[in-house]
Design brief:
about 425 residues, mainly alpha, about 85% helix
């Protein structure tokens, strides 16, 4: 038991650090864009975030799905199959960036000066799609190959490079939104450069030389990685829906306020994701080794850790207040934006008490080849409950209803999540979770 706890601490802590760094480079974009381009730049960034979520989600689906299958089976064909699957969006998305970034920005709700900024950011972001995909795949496979430290280092150094370049490109170089997007696209390039030498090392258990791509494996890979994709897609979809609702309720100022709230929340959600992705290799290894009780125990440990983090975050927000935090992103000192963002943080952050458990559970179920449960948890919390809930609550309570919609969706999703996590424990002391929704 002591050895398992040690592994849990090592894998989870390292991956939380990596994910915190990864989220901070999006936060850095928000901060530097707010300073350099004001409210219009902040609005443009928030409107294009759904596209980043799609790119990142596809990379995580392939990486987590492939990494999970590799951890369980150790088959040499998994890695080349993952790269072959990633090649499809790696070709299509840059073409969209070259020829369709402006219509896409308009479709996302941008207009006027915001449209120009959003289109410029999207063009660069989409051109870097191959590097985002490759970096996510390598990070997941290296972590599942027993090297969480290297995986964390690649994420952290890539994120640090983005933060530094954000400042350099936006201020000394005066490159505006183009510079912000270029800095964001540089991060996965740096991470990939750090991870590539591992492929040639003696300890690496996967490479292109150890098997051939098998398109027949794509379905299995996609199912196991689906919670990661749904989680990212739902994040982007929720941002899109919330932007639309807030545009109608409070105009661009409300969207800019949500940009502050969403990007602050992104850091905490990244920590929860770090817990889930950190514990995933251990769950898959235990499951593949015929130790289902140990796998279930790891899910519970991860869930309890996210609850503790949620309590800590909310206590810190209550003690330190939210005004100084909002002021960092409110360069023009807009009192309406400040008031909306401060209320948003207090209400939106209530979702954290439920969100972490749902994220860990969804990843854990897939790590134990129970993809249907992982898919259902992700679908409920990310799309099925939150979108109609936001529309209804916005109609009833205006902007306050929008802020509370995520907490309501996460809380309702927690009901089946807890039933699946703990219901079987009462029936089977082994902890073997049968996939029966």
């Amino acid at each position: 038991m002591r050895g398992l706890r040690g592994q849990f601490v090592r894998y989870v802590s390292l991956n939380m650090l990596g994910m915190a760094g990864l989220s901070c480079y999006i936060l850095a974009d928000t901060f530097f864009i707010a300073k350099g381009m004001g409210g219009d730049g902040l609005t443009a960034l928030n409107l294009v975030l759904p596209v980043y979520s799609v790119i990142n989600g596809l990379g995580l689906m392939i990486g987590m799905g492939g990494g999970t299958r590799y951890a369980i089976s150790r088959k040499g064909s998994v890695f080349p199959s993952a790269l072959a699957l990633a090649a499809i969006p790696a070709v299509l998305f840059p073409l969209l960036g070259l020829f369709g970034s402006r219509p896409l920005a308009a479709l996302l709700g941008a207009e006027g000066a915001v449209l120009d900024m959003a289109a410029e950011y999207l063009r660069v972001l989409l051109l870097f799609t191959p590097m985002f995909l490759l970096n996510n795949i390598l990070v997941c496979f290296v972590r599942n190959d027993g090297e969480p430290r290297l995986s964390m280092a690649a994420m952290a150094v890539g994120s640090l490079s983005n933060i530094v370049l954000d400042y350099v490109y936006i201020f000394p170089c005066g490159m505006g939104m183009f510079g912000a997007a270029l800095a964001t696209g540089t991060a996965p390039v740096v991470g990939t450069l750090l991870l590539t030498p591992y492929l040639r090392g003696r300890t690496c258990g996967f490479s292109l030389r150890k098997g051939r791509a098998r398109p027949a494996a794509w379905g299995d890979m996609a199912l196991l990685g689906m919670p990661s994709l749904i989680g990212e897609l739902s994040s982007g979809t929720v941002i899109l829906v919330f932007n639309s609702l807030l545009l109608g309720l409070g105009g661009n100022t409300a969207v800019a306020a949500y940009g502050v709230v969403a990007n602050c929340a992104l850091v905490i959600t990244a920590l929860f994701t770090g817990v889930a992705q950190g514990v995933q290799p251990l769950i898959s290894e235990a499951w593949g080794g015929g130790r289902p009780g140990e796998a279930a125990r790891l899910i519970r440990w991860g869930s309890l850790l996210t609850v503790a983090l949620a309590v800590l975050v909310y206590l810190l927000a209550a003690v330190w207040q939210t005004g100084p935090l909002v002021a960092l992103f409110n360069e023009q000192g807009d009192p309406v934006l400040a008031a909306l963002a401060e209320e948003g943080i207090r209400l939106y952050f209530l979702a954290f008490f439920f969100q972490g458990v749902n994220i860990v559970a969804a990843t854990g179920f897939s790590a134990m080849e129970q993809g249907r449960r992982g898919f259902l948890v992700s679908l409920l919390r990310g799309l099925v409950l939150v979108i109609p809930g936001a529309v209804l609550m916005a109609e009833l309570w205006g902007i306050t209803g929008v802020w509370l919609a995520s907490a309501a969706a996460e809380g309702l999703t927690l009901v089946p999540t807890l039933r699946w996590l703990f219901g079987e424990k009462k029936r089977k002391k082994s902890g073997n979770l049968e996939e029966t929704p």
